[in-house]
Amino acid sequence: MLAANLAFPLLTAAILVPLAGALLIALVPATRREVIRPLAVLFSATTGAFTLWMLGAFDRSDAGFQFATSHTWIEEFGIGWNLGVDGISLFLVVLTGVLFPLTFVAVTPKHDPKAYYAWLLMLQAGCIGAFSALDLFLFFIFFEIVLVPMYFLIGGWGYGQRVYAALKFFLFTMFGSALMLVGIVSLAFLDRDAALERSEVASEELAGLQESIDVREVSGVDVPQEEYDRLDELTASVEGADQLTFDLVEIAEGRAEALAADQAAIDAGEMEARDSWNPLDWEAAKWIFLAFALAFAVKVPLFPLHTWLPDAHTQAPTAGSVILAGVMLKLGTYGFVRFGLYLFPDASLFFAPVIATLGVIGIIYGAVVATMQKDIKRLVAYSSVAHLGFIALGTFAMTTQGIGGGVLQMVNHGISTGALFLLLGMLYERRHTYDIAAMSGLQKATPVLAGVFTLVMLSSIGLPGLNGFVGEFLVLAGAYLTLKWWAVVAAAGVILAALYLLWAYQRVFHGEPTEEDLATPDMRIGELAYMAPLLVLIVFLGVYPKPVLERIEPSVAALVSHIEGATDFEEPAAATSGFSGTTADDHGEGE
Amino acid sequence: MIGAIYALDPLYLDGVGLAEVLITLGKVLVTFLILLLSVLFMVWFERKVIADMQNRVGPNRAGPFGLLQTLADGLKLIVKEDLIPNRSRRFVFALAPFLSVIPAFLVFAVVPLGGTFSEGDPGIVTIAGHETFAQLADPPIGVLWILAVSSIGVYGVMLAGWSSGSKYPLLGSVRATAQMVSYEAAMGLSIATLIMTTGSLSTRTMVSVQAGEGFAGFVPNWNVILTGIVPFAIFFIAALAETNRPPFDLVEAEQELVGGFHTEYSSIRFGMFFVAEFMHPVTMSAVIVTLWFGGPAGPLLPGFLEPVSGVFWLVAKVFVFLYIFVLIRGTLPRFRYDQLMDLGWKVLIPLQLGWLLLLAALNVGRDEGWNYAVVIGIGFFVVGGATFFLLSRASEVSRQRRELGEVDA
Amino acid sequence: METFVFFVAAAICLAGALGVVLSKNPVHSALSLVGTLFGVAVLFVAQNANFLAAVQVIIYAGAIVVLFLFVIMLLGVDRAENLSVDPLVGQRAAAIVAGVAIFALPVAALATTGWDATGAIANLGSVSDSAVPDVEGIGRVLFTRYIFALEITSILLAIAVVGAVMLAKKSPKAADMIVDLPARPTSTDADAASADATSEEGTA
Amino acid sequence: MHALLANLTAPLQAADEAFDPIPTPEIEWFTIVPLLVLVGAALGLMTLTAITRRPLFGGFYPLATSVAAIGAAVCTWPIWDRIQDPERGPFTALAGAIGVDGFSVFMTVVICSSVVVAALLADGYLKREGLDGPELYVLLLLSASGGVVMAAANDLIVLFLGLEILSLAVYTLAAMHLRRVTSQEAGIKYFVLGSFASAFLLYGIALTYGATGSTNLVEILSYLTQVALFDNGLLLAGMAMLLVGLLFKVAAAPFHAWTPDVYQGAPSPVVAYMASGVKAAGFAGLIRVLYLGFQTYRVDWQPVIYAVAILTLLVGALMAVVQTDVKRMLAYSSINHAGFVLVAVQAATERGVQASMFYLASYTFLVGGSFAIITIVGRTGDDRHSLDDYRGLAKARPALALVFALLLFSQAGVPFTSGFFAKFYAIAAAVDAGSYPLAAVAMLTAVIAAFLYLRITVSMFLGDVDDADIPERRTLPVPVGAAIALVICVVVTLGVGIFPHVLTGPAGDATAVLVGF
Amino acid sequence: MLLAAGVEPSWYLVLASALFAIGATGLLVRRNPLVMFMCVELMLNAVTLTFVTFSRMLDDIGGQAVVVFVLVVAAAEVVVGLGIIVAIMRRRPDATADDLALLKG
């Protein structure tokens, strides 16, 4: 295995390469149109290769951030180019790296290939950046910048209502993230204020120490070296106290420390627990968490904020839908894990029931609404609402299984929904419609397509033996321990998922084909070729998820213990049992 | 407030009693009467002199040498029917003549009429045991008063033209306004040189300063010499234009505008314009004499005439200028409108501005101990030459452009 | 005496100000403005600001209002305005309310300070010292404290000249105009007057 | 009696001798070199036009103007150098009339850059509209000199004069398109309302003078720190009036009503200058007055600015959305931007000044570039500004559309552009000062405003294109000057967006001095 | 005597603020640009009166010096303002501020 701390900045490269590709493509002269697509695939695949390399080089026993790079960007605000991946973000990065070249191969744009590929490459860079940013500010930047290419993709290459959908998409997401910026800035300043407060204590000690040392130096008494060391240490901490930082780890650990101290005080009865639901009693952290949560909830999307998603999905071009469902929605759920739980263990715990409720509503609502859709793409879009509800539920269950299952489910959803949208794209290419009623009995004409579709659909439903099952099961199992009733209701969603997907399948592929249906060509070898990796993954992860889980688990476990350390939350014993198989021996039975 | 009043006149130093009020009223009355009489005289004088120049006799029926001719004309005007045109704005129409005539009177308030100024004497006369100045008032801003009041004179002309509700008066008054406002700038600038050399805004102080010893014992210390004649020339030309005297009488150019702004006026209203028109040369001559020629200052007359020597010199000097006014009217043809404007804006103002700067440079040079010759050389020939070159080049270019029709934007 | 002067001048000022606002005819407004200007000049004299009083008359009455009248006559826009119609419903009432507020603000402010200025006394030179005439005092201040301000007024004047010249350029032909509004009736009288006066533009 | 007579004769004797010379203050010439360069260039240009029949060569005027503006900016270097010298630091010059500190130098450079952009735009514009006019360049330079004066003004009177110099020239410029009725209407509207605001400003100065006995900001500050005014109604009234005047100039609500009309009617290059240079100068004045003169009264003015900022943000964003004319849209958006600067100003901290400086500097290029494109698209007559006129621009002129999109996205606050950092710093300043709700409102209005920018991009990129229309659009000529201006704006926007410290560095160095004056 | 002074300086200030308010109201009420502009002059006059009064109250000549600047500014404003008004009214002699509502949208 390669050393995790490579000299080569893999992450930076994975961001800059597609960007460079976008730039290069933008500069291709109009006469050399034919080189655009190969170039795009090349750059995107290179990025994919980087991410795969990362996957290979990832140290599975390390719960911390790997491949970390850190460069100062804006010194005054302590903003840096801090990147790194841990078990939680690793697979999302890899997913981004792999899914893009696949869509490049799979889908060709109707017009303006130059702009199309340039935007997509920029999008890839942005997504990788967002998943690997370890600086709050940097994260926000990537989180926000991905809107622009997506906006142009939907608006430029989408279907009928594309302008409306693009606008809605942009404004919804920007609305969410607007407050997040305020939250991020507030957090950084509060962190600095806290540091200043601490440094006051330190400076008092410093003054005392300095005086005593001075006295002894003057009178010629020996001063022990430790005291000098302590002096330097204190001086350093006092001097740096008013320096702002946006570093995720630094702020999170600082907050955790402070929270732990508070918790200790609460346990000792010196302080009252602040768990009032009266907004006037809330400390800043809760508000800031809400600002973050709003941004993520829009992105996920959670129930009342989801309305942009069906439009965006439906109107987006196939590649857009694939990327949107496969990668971009994960920004929200990933954000919840990384910037919700990690950064605000207290507030996350406080708001967990609310968000879990929204997640569950999303599950049921998404399923019910999906059932009623006439447009198959819209149906899949609503199914995403349901699936992401699962992830949110798992995340806010705060158990190792729940969070880990959520992370796995993000990957799964990326694969299977991405594959579904690719298949729908093929259908559309053949029939120029997404209307369920317009198709029937396609199975006869296109047996291979039907077969592949069945597999992917079953994965999406969560059939045991396929990848979807593992994730959903873990989520439910994890959630049951802490959010019992939520898990029970959510389980019903699984059944509903089976209902609407199978029904849709039945209407499209079974029944009496018309002439037009019979004339529909089947999948080509090429199409099968680029679907193959996804199909393999679907089956492989369903049968043998261990390689993924064992990489996810350490980071998730660390996160859970981080939460436990900072709050009065205690993970139920049952949930501490490992789930990745390899560690089953150490922890007892898993799933 | 109290201090301000005191500074006007030593008369009020001991407080204001009945005597002081009476003396002041007397001064007002005398000034007013002098002016009125001088108008009567001026009309006659002008007609007579011009008649002489044209080999005519001039007025010779009423009174000796036709001296009472003006009085007769005035009486005739008063008893004539007062016509007010239908389309006129009545209130303003009635107001305009007053606005025209009152400023003409007001200028005279700050003109020193007499008193001795020799040997540092501040020009105080004694009336009934009270010391006072031989002028109606001596505000510390006397020169500005002249400027201010003469600038008010525009209103009469302007409103008369406008309120007549008729085309020619309107055009006449628009012309007059532009003309008067334009030349006021040149006039103000030339007065600025005076203020710089005398260091005061009070007319009395100006006269006092000019009463000082001049060069070589016989050249008087008059401002006209101290400032190098040019500002005076400009002032004089501007004064002609301000008063709408020929050759700047475009306002009432009969051939073009009938009677100009007072075409629609008749009877006593017209009479007031008439009075104002002929009062202007008198007041302007008095102002010119005060500002540039030492006013009442001059050698003391011998014997019993000594107390009136100030008055004598003033009247003598004013007479000279009255004659010049008439002379110009009798000899020079009228300007064309664009020539008038060109003269004002392109010649007088730049020239006066340059002259002011030159004098200022000399003043600074005096304080800094520079060589006069060098200052004059550089200022006059180098800077002035460059400016002249630029100006002439600019007007040449603009002429070319006009000919090529490029002016249209 | 000062009381008398004050009240007379104040009455003239206020009457003039109201005249400006309430006159239908712009010429009457301008004349009312002259009244106010004189009133203010008198109040200047009453407060020992002789120089300013004179300058006020020379510049305001002698130049500014003359220019106003000149423009009115040049353009023939002395048409009476119909004041009985409120152009925007409620605008007039709102304006009056605003006016009262604007009046009340400084007065209330003065009331809080006991009807007196609160600033430092005699910073740049005394007014009441009769040994130094106000002209000299102002001159000293202008050439010391305000020397920079004095110098940059020249830029202001340069702008005025350049701007006026630019705006007074020969009017383009009517056909050339880009008019995106309905045609309006024009008074022939005014046209004749302005046509003749166009060449005099540069002197304004 | 006789003593008084002696008094009366005294001037006579004095007149004979040399006059008592006034002790004129020392003039630190090097501090006003930028100003002199601007004014000198303007006068030189004017003289040159008078004595030559045609410009020396095509593009001479914009070139000369740009060179002068850049020269003025370069001439600030020695001043900057001296200020940054820790042993000497900022100082007042010219008898205390101007404060020479980093802030003034920074704003001078900002104003000069806006002149460069506007001059480059004006070249093609004047040719296209068939206007001749070195006057535009002359007035531009003179107006900028007023801005420079404002940025350094240490005396309320100097500030007022600077404001008038700045404004009078711009009033004229707004009305300069003699063939467009709307242009003149814009001029007159701007003029009447502008002088209205000036009167308020002046009344404010008068009341402040009455309350403190001085018009000098430093003296006001020292008076207010030494004397505790218990009944400070006069001062507060003066401050309120001053604020009205200054807020008008920066187009803050509720004094914004002129902005859309004027922006719509005035010639586009002039609007570019109005939105950048004039606004920057207005804020410079505002900051100087509030942070310097009324430093000790921040408790009183902060809430006012707070309320005005919220109102401005909301008005700008909400009204912008319902417009259909792109110039009006950008006018309202500029109001919204002014709100953001006010958010920074409200903080009353060093960070606040720094943020507003950053904002103004980056906005100068954003708005300059935006109006460059509006100028180009407006075509002859300068009246094609409806959203429809932008439809299909991406097809006809992809580069132009892309640049416009970049500038618009930057105004919306999309990362990796200067606009994002501008907003970020403003928010950071507000948060640092504890004004969380203000920051939140600001960001929300940014989203609302983003809708407007998206509408423009939509019609450029995504609108249904009538193919018949395209050939005409392809002929949209892009003059060289405008192209250069666009390149500059794009480079700055992206450059600052990626390396913000090129601006924050100087801004930070500049502020340390103003606040701690 | 007649010269006995009984005027409080603050009366002047109140008068000035009244003038200012009348000017401001007039500007808001009137539609004729020329008259609106005259109202601005009224306001400026009120300010000069305020300055002179404060100058007297504070016994400081600086207040009077400021008035000189106000006058210069007023003059320059008039030149520019009337220039614009002439430019527009020459084309449309009956323009009022309401007609200027062309720029509404």
Number of DSSP-assigned strands of chain D: 2
- Helix percent of chain C reads 55-70%
Which segments of chain C are poorly predicted (pLDDT under 50) over 5 or more consecutive residues? 180-204
Q: What's the total helix number of chain D?
A: 22
- The strand order across the widest sheet of chain D is 1-2
Instruction: Output the CATH homologous superfamily of the largest domain in chain C.
Output: NADH-ubiquinone/plastoquinone oxidoreductase chain 6, subunit NuoJ
Helical/strand content category of chain C: mainly alpha
User: Helix tally of chain C?
Assistant: 7
Q: Give the CATH level 1 class of the largest domain in chain C.
A: Mainly Alpha
Secondary-structure element pattern of chain C, one letter each: HHHHHHH
Sheet/helix structural class of chain D: mainly alpha
CATH topology (level 3) name of the largest domain in chain C: Four Helix Bundle (Hemerythrin (Met), subunit A)
Q: How large is the share of residues in beta strands of chain C?
A: under 5%
Give a verbal description of the structure:
The complex is a heteropentamer of chains A (591), B (409), C (204), D (517) and E (105). With 409 residues, chain B is an all-alpha fold. Helices cover 66% and strands 2% of the residues of chain B. In chain B, strands 1-2 form a two-stranded antiparallel sheet. The relative contact order of chain B is 0.11. By secondary structure, chain C is mainly α. Chain C has 3 domains: 1-83, Four Helix Bundle (Hemerythrin (Met), subunit A), CATH 1.20.120.1200; 86-117; 133-180, no CATH class. Chain C has 7 helices and no strands. In chain C, helix 1 (2-22) runs antiparallel to helix 2 and helix 2 runs antiparallel to helix 3. Chain C is globular and about 55 Å long. Chain D is an all-alpha fold and 517 residues long. Chain D has one domain. Helix content of chain D is 76%, strand content 1%. Chain D has 22 helices and 2 strands. Mean pLDDT of chain D is 86; it is low at 1-18. Chain E has helices at residues 9-29, 33-57, 62-89. Chain E is 70% helix and 0% strand. Chain E has a domain at 33-94. Classes of the chains: A mainly alpha (591), B mainly alpha (409), C mainly alpha (204), D mainly alpha (517), E mainly alpha (105). At the C-E interface, helix 1, helix 2, helix 3, helix 4 and helix 5 of C face helix 1, helix 2 and helix 3 of E.
Keywords for this entry:
heteropentamer, B: 409 residues, mainly alpha, two-stranded antiparallel ribbon, 14 helices, disordered N terminus, E: 105 residues, 3 helices, 0% strand, elongated
Task: Reconstruct the topology from this structure.
The complex is a heteropentamer of chains A (591), B (409), C (204), D (517) and E (105).
Chain A: H1 10-27, H2 36-57, E1 66-74, E2 79-85, H3 87-106, H4 113-132, H5 136-145, H6 147-157, H7 162-219, H8 225-239, H9 248-267, H10 284-299, H11 308-315, H12 318-341, H13 345-371, H14 376-397, H15 400-431, H16 442-445, H17 447-461, H18 467-482, H19 484-509, H20 515-518, H21 525-543, H22 546-566, H23 573-576, H24 584-587
Antiparallel strand pairs in A: 1-2
Chain D: H1 2-16, H2 33-51, H3 60-74, H4 76-84, E1 91-93, E2 98-100, H5 102-129, H6 134-152, H7 156-174, H8 181-212, H9 217-226, H10 233-249, H11 258-265, H12 268-293, H13 298-321, H14 326-346, H15 350-378, H16 393-396, H17 398-412, H18 418-432, H19 436-462, H20 470-474, H21 480-498, H22 501-515
Antiparallel strand pairs in D: 1-2
Chain E: H1 9-29, H2 33-57, H3 62-89
Helix pairs in contact in E: 1-2, 2-3
